[in-house]
Design goal:
mainly alpha, two-stranded antiparallel ribbon, 62% helix, Nuclear Transport Factor 2, Chain: A
Length: 101
């Protein structure tokens, strides 16, 4: 289940890239977008660090897709929650650290 860690890293890279691009010349809308990105990353980290599969899954829409770096697809919030619950059971104490620079 190392793919979950890979997804977290990929998420951090993507969000960091988005934020960096916006940070060059942020206007009012971009500042709001940066704040929203930070809030989602913080919520994701908190949910992962607490082993809270329900909170992780809540970050997806009801019909959202979770695709691992290996291409494994999980469709729907309920299935995503179940996948994270299994992962947390298999890897107790899992921690996420994401830094947006």
């Amino acid at each position: 289940m190392r793919h979950f860690a890979s997804i977290a890293i990929a998420l951090a890279v993507v969000l960091s890239s988005v934020e960096q691009g916006l940070a060059d010349k942020p206007n009012g809308n971009e500042k709001a977008a940066l704040k929203a990105v930070r809030q989602v990353v913080d919520a994701y980290n908190k949910a992962i660090n607490q082993g809270d599969a329900e909170a992780v899954a809540a970050l997806w829409t009801a019909d959202g897709d979770f695709i691992t770096t290996r291409g494994q697809r999980t469709f729907g919030r309920k299935a995503i929650q179940e996948a994270f619950a299994r992962h947390f059971a298999e890897t107790p104490g899992l921690k996420a650290i994401t830094k947006i620079t």
